[in-house]
Amino acid sequence: MKVEVLSRELIKPYISTPSNLQHYRISLLDELSPTMNIPTILYYTDIQSSNHLKISLAKVLTRFYPLAGRYVKEACMVDCSDQGAEFVEAKVDIRIEDLISQGKDLKVELLNLLIPRPIGAVDEVSDPLLAIQVSTFACGGLAIGLMSSHRVADMATTSNFITEWALHAKIHGREDCLSMSPRWNSGLLFPGKHFAPLHLGLSRSEEKFEVHKVITKVFHFSKSAISRIQEKARGNSLSEKLPTRVQCVVGLLGKAIIDSHVANPANPREFLMSQILNLRGRTIPPLRKSQCGNLYLTAFVESVAGEGGVEFQSLVDMLSTSVKSGIEECKDALSTGEEGQMMVAKNFHDFKDSITNPGSFCAGCFSDLSKFPFYEADFGWGKPVWVSMANIPVSHGCFLLADESGQGMEAWIGLNVNDMSKLEMDGNIMEFTTQGMGRID
Q1: What is the span of the domain harbouring residue 327?
Q2: Distance between CA atoms of residues 54 and 69, nearest Å
Q3: Which of 46, 334, 428, 439 is 20 to 30 A from 326 via CA?
Q4: In total, how many domains does the chain have?
Q5: Residues contacting residue 148 through CB under 8 Å, at least 6 positions apart
Q6: Based on the domain organization, do 40 and 132 belong to the same domain?
Q7: Over the stretch 313-356, which tens digit does the pLDDT of each residue have?
């Protein structure tokens, strides 16, 4: 697959940001978030015209104005002087069908050609906080690849932006039809403390395997496979309630990684697994879905595996308990003032200490993105035929996305080559997954 860049420009908000909003103070959660851009790629077929994308982007940036600014890390703030979001147009020499139909043979690193910037090119004053690449395929279809800086946006914020941009494009910017009012005041809720961010070792250059030694694979869990995993997790329990779909999938993947790791007696048997929890809707008082910025906590499990690995039901139980405990912590994040703010900071620092502990093995850091409505993003051509990540070269990072049906899941996992080979050959993984993504009918 070859991608030719045709143009690169900056799109500025349609209406200038008011002077009283030109200095956006980031929150302590923004400060602590990883130093990276987050990629999201949406694929469409049967495109009539994409000329309206720039106009609608300019209009929606008026409401998401920090994304058109630049981060000033010395001051822990965003200069919102309408510098603009980067907009790239490119041409691809294959059809979308040729890409998606590769299934398990797809080299995920090729998808990085559909995003406009390296994942690690972030946090310098010259770096745009939002970059978009529109790639037109030989079939006439296109892919919209977005990069949002983790310094100002988590995936919930990015999802809100995509929803609003798609709606703007479809209705041609009619203000009376907009669905939400994005709120950019997280710095007031969780005032910044000039904390150091989480560095993941990403370079500012391209995501080359020779540099990071990490590859990404996609594992698909169908609706029926997830149901069988849930029954397996419940086992002989008398409970009528099945464990959640997400915790069962996370548990299955985590067990496979842990079991292969402890098979080597020289490796530590203490392990860590984590799952990101969205704060929105879980605090008292509740944060709205339209709240922008980084608003999440990390629920994590620390335990010790036996010589033969870890028992599946036990691991799912631990994950469920960890998530329930994390949700309880979420409730106090706002209602207890500075105490809640420090609880959030402590959660980040405890997690950072755990993943850097040389005596403990990080089996996986899981982000569940399956509930975000990416497949509803209709820019006027219908819904996307596929939504993907890209190759994020962070070892043991895992993102869960919904598949096109909305009933299954795709797990995007980054591991080193040896660990990936072991994961692919694990009996449970082979039984319950198909490697790769869905197909275009």
Answers
A1: 209-371+391-435
A2: 17
A3: 428
A4: 2
A5: 37, 38, 40, 67, 129, 130, 157, 158, 161
A6: yes
A7: 999 999 999 999 999 999 999 988 899 999 999 999 999 999 88
Q: How many CB atoms lie within 10 A of CB 30?
A: 28
Closest C-alpha to 157, from 169, 145, 146:
146
* CA angle in degrees (0–180, nearest 5) for 266-272-276: 155
Q: Are residues 59 and 178 in the same domain?
A: yes
Considering the domain architecture, whether residues 226 and 351 belong to the same structural domain is answered as yes
Q: Which residues contact 11 (CB under 8 A, 6 or more apart)?
A: 54, 57, 58, 61, 68, 84, 85, 86, 87
Same domain, 172 and 241: no
The two tokens of residue 282 are 């879980």
Residue 319 inside a domain? The answer is yes
Q: Do 92 and 150 share a domain, yes or no?
A: yes
Residue indicated by tokens 């037109």: 136
Q: How far is CA 64 from CA 28, 58, 145, 175, in A?
A: 20, 10, 18, 14
Dump pLDDT digits (tens) for 23-82: 999 999 999 999 999 999 999 998 878 889 999 999 999 999 999 999 999 999 999 999
The answer to whether position 219 is within a domain reads yes
CA distance 237 to 316: 13
Same domain, 30 and 175: yes
Instruction: Enter the tokens of residue 65.
Output: 């104005």
Q: At what angle do helices 338-355 and 312-335 cross, to 10 degrees?
A: 150
Residues 257 and 401 in one domain: yes
Environment class of 52 (CB within 10 Å of its CB; exposed 0-12, middle 13-18, buried 19+): middle
Is pTM beyond 0.90 here?
yes
